[in-house]
């Protein structure tokens, strides 16, 4: 089986923290590939992306270009609407029967797993890769056993970086040059993506 880690998120914008997380996880767990999957309409976030779906897809494409183990999947964009992971995984397994999928997430989302839509069905289909940064509080023992048994934890180096910070810096005219890959930096500037509208 071809081992694939699905890395979902809004990626508004993708930044070097995302890429380092994917690279480190791929190496530690011996994944064959990591697929970046931007959400069309994430159910767990009140925040609506500032960049369009096409702009976020293009930024990911630019960020991972040339990497041998990174791929982009637009499956949730293609489907549109609220993106429930279980629906996406069912569709991916229909399309790629010889792939074993895992789902990458931050430790904070691991704690939230029991609230996920159709979590019992999802836990039967895939493993979850919980990425723990130093200082993150994890409540793994509080998860139901059938979910806990499907979680693998990976510790990554501490990188204090977020898409929110990059958007704020861009809107304030402050530098974020080395927080994103250079092609992404140029794309954001060229399209004035996060420029303050006031």
Automatic annotation (TrEMBL):
GO molecular function, one term: nicotinate-nucleotide adenylyltransferase activity
GO BP term, pick one: NAD+ biosynthetic process
SUPFAM superfamilies recorded: Nucleotidylyl transferase (SSF52374)
Class of this enzyme: transferase
Alphabetically ordered keywords of this record: ATP-binding, NAD, Nucleotide-binding, Nucleotidyltransferase, Pyridine nucleotide biosynthesis, Transferase
Domain Cytidyltransferase-like residue range list: 6-169
EC id: 2.7.7.18
Involved pathway(s): Cofactor biosynthesis; NAD(+) biosynthesis; deamido-NAD(+) from nicotinate D-ribonucleotide: step 1/1
Catalytic activity field: nicotinate beta-D-ribonucleotide + ATP + H(+) = deamido-NAD(+) + diphosphate
Family: Belongs to the NadD family.
Role of this protein: Catalyzes the reversible adenylation of nicotinate mononucleotide (NaMN) to nicotinic acid adenine dinucleotide (NaAD).
Name used for this protein in its record: Probable nicotinate-nucleotide adenylyltransferase
Annotated organism of origin: Paenibacillus selenitireducens
């Amino acid at each position: 089986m071809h081992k694939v880690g699905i890395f979902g998120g809004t990626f508004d914008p993708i930044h070097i923290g995302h890429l380092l997380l994917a690279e480190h996880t791929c190496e530690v767990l011996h994944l064959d590939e990591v697929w970046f999957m931007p959400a069309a309409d994430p159910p767990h976030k009140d925040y609506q992306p500032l960049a369009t779906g096409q702009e976020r897809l293009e930024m990911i494409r630019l960020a991972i270009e040339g990497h041998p183990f990174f791929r982009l999947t637009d499956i949730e964009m293609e489907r549109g609407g609220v993106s429930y992971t279980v629906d996406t995984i069912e569709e991916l397994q229909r399309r790629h029967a010889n792939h074993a999928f895992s789902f990458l997430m931050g430790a904070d989302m691991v704690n939230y797993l029991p609230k996920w839509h159709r979590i019992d069905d999802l836990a039967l289909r895939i493993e979850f890769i919980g990425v723990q940064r130093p200082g993150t509080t994890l409540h793994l023992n509080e998860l139901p056993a059938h979910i806990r048994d499907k979680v693998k934890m990976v510790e990554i180096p501490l990188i204090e970086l977020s898409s929110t910070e990059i958007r704020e810096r861009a809107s304030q005219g402050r530098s974020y040059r080395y927080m994103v890959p250079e092609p992404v930096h140029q794309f954001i500037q060229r399209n004035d993506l996060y420029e303050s509208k006031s």
